[in-house]
Each structure stands twice: as C-alpha cells, then as structure tokens.
Amino acid sequence: MTMSNTPMAASPLTRAVLEIDEYASGLGWDQPARLFALVDTARLRTQEPSLAAQLGLDEETGATGFTPIEQDEVPADKALDEFLATIAWPDAVVGCALTVERLMLPSSVDTQVPQGLSDAELAKWVAARPERQEVRMTVAVLRDGNRESAIRLREKDAATEVLTGPDLVPGLAEALAATFAD
After folding, report:
1. Which InterPro entries does the UniProt entry name for this protein (predicted)?
2. Is residue 90 part of a domain?
3. pLDDT, tens only, 37-85
4. Which are the contacts of 48, defined by CB distance < 8 A and separation ≥ 6?
5. What is the dihedral of CA 64, 13, 72, 93, to 10 degrees?
6. CA torsion 42→175→131→78, rounded to 10°?
7. Is residue 28 part of a domain?
C-alpha cells in the first residue's frame, strides 16, 4: 500500500499514519477496524526482496520509513481492547497501527453524559445526540514509544482536513503500545 499524497516533510511515522488514513479513506466509511503491522522499509527490501517487490518497494521508488502491512480482520464480536490484549508481534515488526471509526461528542457535552450507563447504553446515547461527529481515527505506535495519530471527520472528508498529532487518541495509543509489552 503506497500512497502519493503524504507530505514528504513529515516524519516517517506521520507519513505511515497518513498513508493508512488515505488507504482507509479510499475504502469509504462504515468500515470495520483495521490493524496494520509496521515494518522498516529498508529492512524489508533487504530481508524479503520478493515481498518488497510485490508491495512496489523497489530501490527506485525511494520509499523509506515504515511499510504498513494490513493484518487479518479485527473480530467484530470482541471488544477492541480485549482483542488488542491478545496480540504479540514478532521482532521484525517495529510498530503497529489501527484505524477505527467512532462517534465523538464535543467536550462541551461532557457534563451532560449520564452516569452509570453500560457501553451499549452509552453508544446509543451518543448516537442520538445531534452534535455527534463521525470520525475515523488512525493511531500508530512504535516499539520505541513514538506515537502518531490522524483524525478525519466524516463531514470534512478531505486529505487536507486530517488532523495529526502524537497525543490525539491517548487511550488507543496506550492499548497499541501494550501489544509490544513483554
């Protein structure tokens, strides 16, 4: 998966996150969560040249940084945090990323959220709010602790409207980082 619209001035991890966001955007909305292994592109070219060639990562492309490799489907019948707790990565994987769609509310609504709701009840309450926003979040973490996130609003679905930063979705970043814990 190599995309052309990622900014070259961005860090390699930011480029990988934006590449995954662009890939997910091309699939449209209302998609399941998708998990990606991040591998070092130069190492992939050296150690797995035939796979690198299949992915279009030959020397002439100049691709550096991280190559996202989509993993098997994330199970829809299991809570995301429970699923992530079952993952262990081989040493060749230097990071991982997840893209997931959620409904979000502005912080101005925080004081209105009813207490004591189950997850299902809370999801239903949020879905009924007129100020809700549909978002796609792409979060990546590296073994060394570096993180990056991208958030795309459905109502502003354009590559130029994607917000990036390392601390946009801290809970999901922590869950992904835990997949590298010994």
Report:
1. PPA1309-like
2. yes
3. 999 988 888 888 787 777 777 665 555 689 999 998 888 888 888 899 9
4. none
5. 70
6. 110
7. yes
